[in-house]
Amino acid sequence: MARISPKAVVVNPDGLADDVEVGPFSYVAGEVEVGPGTRIANGVTVTGRTRVGAGCWLHAGCIVGCAPPGRSEDDAGPCTVADGNVIREHVIIEAGADPDGEGTRLAERNMLMVGCQVAHDASVAEECIFANFTRLERGARVERFVRTSGFTLIQAYATVGAYSFTTGYASVVTDVPPYAIVQGLPSRVRCVNTENLRRCGFDAEAIRRIKGAFRMLFDGAEGPPDDERLRAVERAFDDEHVRHLLDSLRRSAASGTGRQRQPAAGEGR
User: Fold this and answer.
1) Tell me, which fold does domain 3-192 have in CATH?
2) Strand ranges (DSSP E) for 20-88?
3) pLDDT digit string (tens) for 108-133?
4) How far, in Å, CA of 59 to CA of 152, rounded?
5) Residue 216 φ/ψ, nearest 5 degrees
6) Distance between CA atoms of 178 and 240, rounded to whole angstroms?
7) Where residue 246 falls among pLDDT bands split at 50, 70, 90?
């Protein structure tokens, strides 16, 4: 049976795995399901159509699955937090805005540090680390192994490519290419995120090819690379990581907004 503090409120204890811990002054309601080995600290709120996976740690004061602005819990969408996520103090993760949609999703083994916010229908792939007060606006998407610095803002429907890094106070308006370090207001590509690639197991030759592609695509260039540069890089490098980079850039360019993801017709905050 789940270990629930007598000072906590859990509306549906049957939704909690047997070894879940719930601390004092926490509130767990709605259609919440919590997987084995998860710890819910004091003063946590988990509500709505939220599923929290196994081995997660929800720290004091965080809120998971709350309805987005303008919605009630009854007409909000789902919120999914997969296994092994660490949600630090005062993080807010909204539920989806569409009751029939996929909702807001966090994949496995992410860490969201103090004060981060994830707006409705955003998605985060596995193994990401968000520094304090990073904010994802509605519909934003973060690919795997991304790292952010404090006070990063990822604006609505922007995609942050895999293995990339945002510097402090960066404002991501359009898509961030995979493997990049971006900086600024609005952000722009500065260089390759070499150290993260090494830590994630990329060998020296793969990193060399990615750096060569970045030099051809971004050095001295204003704005996104044009078709001619993309084709030149494609001819120069026969490499799976470079192909992934080019595919991502082409999807962003094809959208007309620099963002692969787009709001549905009539969708707003």
Assistant:
1) UDP N-Acetylglucosamine Acyltransferase; domain 1 (2.160.10)
2) 21-22, 27-28, 33-34, 39-40, 45-46, 49-52, 57-58, 63-66, 78-81, 86-87
3) 999 999 999 999 999 999 999 999 99
4) 21
5) -70, -30
6) 12
7) very high
Q: Which amino acid is at 58?
A: L
Centroid of chain to Cα 240: 24
* pLDDT over 80 at 35, yes or no: yes
pLDDT of residue 265: 55
Of the candidates 141, 187, 137, 179, the residue with the CA atom closest to the CA atom of residue 162: 179
Asked whether the beta carbons of 90 and 38 are under 8 A apart, the reply is: no
The two beta strands, 180-183 and 188-192, are antiparallel
**φ, ψ dihedrals at 117, nearest 5°:** -135, 135
Q: DSSP characters for 148-198?
A: E-TT-EE-TT-EE-TT-EE-TT-EE-SPBPTTEEEETTTTEEEEE-HHHHH
Angle (nearest 5°) at CA 58 between 137 and 62: 50
Strand partners, 4: 22
Please determine, for residue 151, whether its predicted confidence score (pLDDT) is greater than 50. Answer: yes
- What does pLDDT average to over the chain? 95
Are the C-beta atoms of 77 and 120 separated by less than 8 Å?
yes
CB 157 within 8 A of CB 140: yes
Question: Domain boundaries in the chain?
Answer: 3-192
pLDDT of 266 > 60? The answer is no
Give the contacts of 125 (CB within 8 A, at least 6 positions apart): 107, 142, 143, 144, 146, 162
